[in-house]
Structures are given as C-alpha cells and as structure tokens.
Amino acid sequence: MAETILMKGNEAVAEAAIRGGCRFFFGYPITPQSEVPEYVSRRLPEVGGVFLQAESEVAAINMVYGAGGAGARVMTSSSSPGISLKQEGISYIAGAEIPCVIVNMVRGGPGLGTIQPAQSDYFQATKGGGHGDYRILVFAPASVQEMVDLTIESFDLADKYRNPVMIMGDGILGQMMEPVRFPDGPDRPNPEKPWATTGKRGRKKVNLISSLNIEPEKMEEHNWKLHRKYREMEKNEVRFETDDVDGADVIIVAYGTTARVARSAIRKAAERGYRVGLLRPITLWPFPYAPLRELAPRVKAFLVVEMSTGQMVDDVKIGVEGKAPVCFHGRPGGMIPDPEGIVQEIDRIMTGRGARA
Amino acid sequence: MSEKRVFVFVGAYGSGKTEVAINYALHLNKEGKQVVMVDLDLVTPYFRSREAACSLREKGIEVLAPPRELSRADLPILPPGITSVLKNKGKYVILDVGGDPTGARVLGTLQGLLPVRDLEVFYVVNARRPFTREVDQARDVLERIEASSRVKATALVNNTHLGDLTNPEVVLEGGDMVRELAMRLGLPVKITAVKKDLASLIPNGHGVGMILPLTRHMCTPWDEVPPDPGADLAPVPLRVKAPSLEPTRD
Predict the structure, then answer these.
(1) Which domain holds residue B63?
(2) What is the pLDDT of residues B134-150, one digit of tens each?
(3) Over the stretch A288-317, which tens digit does the pLDDT of each residue have?
(4) How far apart are the C-alpha atoms of B131 and B114, rounded to whole Å?
(5) Cα–Cα distance measured from residue A184 to residue A97, given in angstroms and rounded to the nearest whole number
(6) Is A165 a domain residue?
C-alpha cells in the first residue's frame, strides 16, 4: 500500500481523478474549490493530459462535452454559482449520453451568496438542475479518503452508464485536510468506446453524437431509453451507510459534512441516555429509500440534518411513507450545525416537542 | 532564537504555517514579549489565523487582520497598521503568509520595511504533503516562493504530520528529509513542531532545533478535542473568507 499523505479534499479529488484515468480537465476558478484546477494544472501535464482554464463555466462544460464525446475521461469542477452556469451543458451531456465527472464543492446561496460551506444544491443536483427528463448519479462523500475512493470509481461508472456523475462536497470537505492513501498500481484504464467521435476508423458510418432529436417519435423513444437506464442505475447504484440504527429511538439522516457533525452529536446524545442512530446516504441520486422504509416502523422519529432549510427532507418523507414523524434541523447560508444544536433537537423530539418538517 | 524580532512564516500551501505561527506567537507571549500577529494570508479561503484572533487577543497578543465585516470577503485585503508595527522596536511581529509562491507574493510589497538584521524567515515543511515529499521538490517550492516574495528563507521548520494519524516516526522521518534539505540549502533547522501530546517523545538532537509543542487551533466543526487543562487556548471552530490572484468569481 502506498504511503499515507495529508491532503485537502480539493487536492484529493484532483489526484483521484488522475488515478481514475482522467486526462482532460476544463474549468474556471471559484472559491472554495480553486485548489482542484490548481492541482490538476500541475499534475495533468506530467501524465500527458490537458488542463485548460476556460473563459467561463459555460465554455468549460461544453469542452467537457467535446472531450467526453471523443471518448476521453474528462472532469470539470466548480462551486454552486458556477455549477448553475453549467446546467445547460449538463443537460446536453445527459441527453447525448456522454460520460464525464462533475465536482461541486457547494457554497451558500442563492445567488453569489457566500464562500462558506452549504448543502443547498441538493435539489439542483438530484431533481434536474438543467432542463429535460434526465438524472445524474450524485455521490456525497463525507471524508477526504471517501472523496478519493468515490472519485476514482466515478469514471468507471460514468463510462458504464454513459452518463454524468457528480461528486458533491462542500467548502469544508474541499478545504479540510485529512490523511489519505491512494491505491497502488497504474491509473484506471479508459475502456474502448466504439461510439466515440474519433473518425471512421474503417467503419462504414461516421459516429455522430447529438442531443437534438427533431422528430418527437424519436425523442420519445430516446427518453424511454434514458428512463430504462436510470431505472437500472436505481437498481444497482444506491449506496448508504448506517451506524447504530438497531434499537435507536431517533435516526439522524445526514450526508457529507453534516453526517460528520451528526456523529459527534450522537456521541453526546448517548451520554445523556438517548439512543440515536445515523443513516448516511452516500448516493443522493439514486436515493436510499428502501432502508428508510424498512427502519420507519421501528423508530420514534427521523431527524434530517442539513446545511440548508431542508431539501433532502422530501426524499426522506418519500422513503418513510408516513410511518414515522420526520423532523428537521438545519443551518442555511454558510452556517454549520453544531453538535449541541442537534442534541437539543433530539431532546425536543424525545420529550414530544420536536418540530415536524 | 529570540534575538530576532520579526518572524515570517512561508511555505507550501497547507504546510501548517498558520498553526506553527500561532503557537510560536503564544511561545513568545509566554516569555513576556509584546507580540503582534499579522494575518497576511490573501489566498486561503478557510482556516486562517484571523479565525483565532479573539482567543489570541484574550492572551494579550495584538492581531492585525482585515476588519471583521470584510474578513470573509473573497478579496485580497492587507490589514492596516503593518508599517507601524514593523518599525516599532519594542514589538515582536509574526507574519503569517499565504501558501505557495502565489500566497508569498504579498511579502514583496513589504520589502524595505522588513528589518534585515532582526528578521527570521521560517520555511515550514510538512514532508507528508503532496508537493514537498522529496528534498528536490521542497527546494523547488522554496526557490519559487523566494522568487515571488523577494525574501530569502533563513531557517527551516519541520512540521511533518498526518493530522490524527501522526506518530513520532512520521515526525522523525520528516525530520530526516528536512535536515537533508537544510544541509543542501546551508540553513539551520530551528524548529520541530509537533502535537503537544507527542512532544515529549521527540528526542532533542542535531538538526531538530527547538521542539515547539502544538496546540491545534484550526478545527473542523465536528472535532472533539479532549479537554486539555494545559491548553493555551480553546480550539476555534472553523469560520471563513478567500481569494486568488487569478481572475475568479468573487
């Protein structure tokens, strides 16, 4: 196993992309993720790759479309306002079925907002973002090591489904430093892509990639094809982690940074005699509805904790199917929930004063 | 070591300059010196010395940082009052500079104000960070920092660590690299910085310098720091700001 080193989340995503076989990066700087382009600008030339700082996020995402369409392993990264700018391109990429990886180190919004960490891009990432009937696979790592592991794998999954994969972190996950290890061995290989637009190569017909389908019959057919692909992703790719859910009175549902804060809160709550578990979605789309459905009859309540005014709450309610109350504790706008605030909410729930979401 | 009066901390991005600078400020403060801490970090968005300003001020350490309402603006703001503290011979001044050549560039604007005879420029190295793992890499980073800041390092700091996974072997292995770097550069290693609980396990010796026990001040919101009665000050939960000198969205 390789030596352990100390990395910021942003640096780790960048190195992991290279280990995942990424050789092209197009982006535009924005706090708090600028270490990603900075890092790949140093490293990609060393491995024969290309880093390009585009003139805007819109340009960058369309370069991703081009490189991915030509069969390359390609990534872009940004933070909330920049990800909003990329949405048209992401919709085109999803429609054209081009594999790529997109990193969003979320900051407080709406608008230009603040450079502080947030989780208020959940709706944008999981419910559309751009126009049209499409989905993207969304990973929500909660540590720098998990950011490494999921980023490496993202490139394989993007190719497998010919679909964008998003790594959704936040300012804290991007800026904080933790020890990490990278797998030994060569970078992941970029598989053969017979559909890629690399010239005829002896084929009779040229490959064409487009998200344009003028005939509605063909567009409908394409939508159903995408739909079947998304059902397949829902079947295969749901990931989550549970801690101490057996016998728990309250289960916290939280992802990323807030799951880390929740773990501290759970330890404090245990000192006060409360049995609290954690369900941590690792994929935000597809969402882990099944474990919620299974746990719902066994708990007094679920407590959703987010750095927003409550966006994942809707998905938790879908999973719970009304079989248990769903409460919420959140800090929006770049503030971070503290463990004590979560413990107080648990205390309110356990004494019948919890606020229903 | 304290015959110097102005201490500059430079290093690669994420090398631990801020933690070392804060702990060094506390060390001078304990010796009864009048200490001024200057947050010169114009490039890092989170985890900067201004985040510890309140606790440092409680200890009687003066802190120069951007005004509170602008401390989290994504703007490169030089704090006011630097010139006067650099000229005041009664004050010990710590300059916590941003990482990499980009972060160090701001030092160039203070050229001429830095008292050459009273100046110590510490190059902080963590041998477990991605771009300073080998002697050649670390030397290259320093050369680029010196070129952009127009200030030469005068001493090295071994700040090799792995966060929570740090053990004495990690510190000592890093020490070997930093010592070799020091030999090549013809500079002394003047500080080995190490987590407080490990400090007693690091042997004194040639090329180690002063062992500076570190109390951590830059923490994540979920860090559970065990109560430490000897702690110099409470850890400061993360709060933030940031810029880059390149064109960027605010």
Answers:
(1) 6-236
(2) 999 999 999 999 999 99
(3) 999 999 999 999 999 999 999 999 999 999
(4) 28
(5) 31
(6) yes
